[in-house]
Write a structure and sequence with these properties.
about 400 residues, Growth Hormone, Chain: A, mainly alpha
């Protein structure tokens, strides 16, 4: 198996686990958690923010660690965190253990994604890098679909919701074993590995990085609010059934496979146009839930638009940051994800505090407006054309 296929396979399953059940299953099972533990929307929002805070904490360390050790160690740390965290949720006797498990599982995504930018940059020919990065990013959509199917299976066999979390823990450990077998043990001899310290602020903040960071921050808010509260909003609407939430996740996952076309879309239409269309799709998806959470056509359309949009957006951040920070892709991408993480922490906490007063419907309309307005941000011309760019 050549390097591109090996990295694509390992990265696909790593992101499937860490960005699928480990980070996003909490939103799907939020109604069950609310019922069993008697938690308020405000408390559930703070737990969701804690999940993304764990993700952010891992990001703060992964850029430096990946440069020193190569991708293998942080990726395995992320997958093991996902496994232990989901197991804690499965066996949680009280809200404190539940929250600890959710937060620990959330760190897995922070540890395991960014190092693949280095691995791809070091071992994959430039002509194939965008495609491989898109494949790795789209592993999330497989994990989301499997999360929904696991919830459906548990309900169909009369099993408690915790049984699905045990399955998530087992899947995390299996992905860890696969990555341990496929990823190299020693770091590659690259310029970034030799300069392991974090550069000064002037390296991060420039005309090319400002649009990237602004979009990452906004996307963090939109993404976290949708994943944390969409199922709660839809499940609470008239006419919903026990299968509504899991089927919603399956649809999100299935249509997320369109993210595999991100690299081809950027090559054909340019980064700027692809980015704008993706952000508008995310905004329309959130707006549909805000306007008609009880309408099956509206909910289905929202799942289609958001499932495809979020996978496109995740891959776009990876491709875009690789263009802006060519000489240190993992450190640059980690910084973009840091801004994404800040937005992800703020979003659920604010929504949880405001939901009882204003209602989730109005909150989702505001999120829709944020996503659509962000579509006005444009990448630097050199990054949009994917031509040579010295940061």
């Amino acid at each position: 198996m050549d390097a591109a296929r090996r990295l694509g396979l390992a990265g696909f399953f790593a992101t499937a686990v860490t960005f699928g059940p480990a980070r996003n299953a909490y939103g799907l099972f939020l109604p069950d958690i609310r019922e069993e533990f008697g938690l308020s929307t405000e408390m559930l929002g703070f737990i969701a923010s804690g999940l993304y805070a764990g993700y952010l904490a891992a990001l703060l360390a992964v850029g430096l660690l990946a440069a020193r050790t190569g991708p293998r160690l942080p990726v395995l740390a992320g997958l093991l965190s996902a496994g232990v965290g989901t197991a804690l949720v499965a066996f949680s006797p009280n809200p404190a253990i539940l929250a600890a498990g959710v937060v620990l599982a959330g760190t897995g995504a922070g540890w395991s994604w960014a190092p693949y930018n280095d691995a791809v940059g070091q071992t994959v020919p430039e002509s194939s890098r965008d495609r491989v990065l898109s494949i790795i990013s789209t592993g999330t959509t497989f994990g989301i679909a499997v999360t929904g199917l696991a919830a459906l299976s548990a309900a169909a066999y009369g099993l408690p919701w915790r049984a699905a979390w045990l399955a998530f823990a087992a899947g995390s450990l299996a992905a860890a074993a696969l990555n341990a077998a496929l990823l190299p043990r020693a770091p590659a001899n690259t310029g970034e590995a030799k300069t392991v310290g974090w550069p000064g602020l002037e390296w991060f903040w420039c005309a090319a990085s400002a649009p990237l960071f602004g979009v990452a921050l906004s996307f963090g808010v939109v993404n976290a609010v949708y994943w944390s509260f969409a199922v709660d909003l839809v499940s609470g609407a008239a006419g919903s059934t026990q299968a509504t939430g899991p089927l919603f996740y399956v649809a999100l996952g299935v249509f997320g496979f369109t993210g595999l076309a991100t690299g081809d879309a950027v090559a054909r239409f340019g980064l700027g146009r692809t980015l704008a269309a993706t952000l508008v799709s995310l905004g329309v998806a959130a707006g549909l839930l805000g306007l008609a959470p009880g309408s099956l056509p509206a909910v289905a359309a929202s799942a289609v638009l958001f499932g495809s949009g979020v996978m496109f957006m995740s891959a776009l951040l990876s491709v875009w940051s690789s263009a802006v920070f060519r000489e240190r892709p993992s450190t640059g991408f980690s910084t973009a994800l840091l801004l994404f993480g800040i937005g992800s922490i703020a979003g659920p906490a604010v929504v949880g505090a405001a939901a009882d007063q204003y209602g989730l419907e109005k909150i989702f309309l505001l999120v829709a407006a944020l996503a659509i307005s962000t579509s006005l941000i444009r990448p630097a011309p050199d990054d949009d054309t994917r031509g040579p760019h010295e940061h």
